[in-house]
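[job 4471] stage=fold_predict status=RUNNING
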Amino acid sequence: MVLFLCTGNSARSQMAEAFLRHHAGDLYEVHSAGLDPQGIHPLTIQVMSEVGIDVAGHESKSLNLYLSKTSPKWVIFVCEKAERSCPHVWPFSLQTESWRIDDPVDSTSDDLQRLMKFRTIRDEVEARVVQWIADRSAVMEVEVKTVLETQEEG
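[job 4471] inference complete, writing structure tokens
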């Protein structure tokens, strides 16, 4: 299981969850949550729709839904605040990562600039997810090769 964490679960973590599902299919069970869920931001829905991914039906979820109920293999913090607030929460996770992506919700510029910020963050999140999948695939290939070589020797 992969769990993306951020503060509001309204933009970055929702995007990451959707992109991992989109690019990796059923390879990973994927979820997202926030320390203080704020609902999915309308611009998150818009910019994801622009790339053919519908997140309109997603819900903003609280971290409390996952605490003591699951032990994710990977926890990925997409914001510094979430990382600072809960590094001790996942002691049994195999791996945690910090992506520290700017929060487009915090943008106070005009509507067009705000939309552009959401698009920029969307593209950054997608690039990170695609790289994360590639990194996991490379590790899995090495592990499979090692197992096969060990079996051949034995």
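[job 4471] summary: The chain is about 45% helix and 10% strand.
[job 4471] exit 0
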